[in-house]
Amino acid sequence: MKKEGDIVHFHLDELPVIPSEYAHLHLSGNGFYASSTLKDFPLRDKKVLLHVRRRRWVDESGKSYSRSWDLVAEGTRYSKEFAYFLKEAFGYPPDTCPIS
């Protein structure tokens, strides 16, 4: 966690656990993909940014694998839950809301 003015940054890395759908393959860790940034619920009147890094796995032939995540609401950089809240609470599409 890092505070920067009125913004709180959380840096989250995927745990080093091979995805169950690839359990039958012999995979080894191969670092991370570039982080994705998404906006989440405010925390004590501060904006919250989540910086998420997905792990990259590689098999013996060099082919890369990773988990498929669906964290962001379509057309936004908001978490699905936060985008739904903004739309329901204010009736705005998420990126046009006054608190975005």
Automatic annotation (TrEMBL):
This is Transposase.
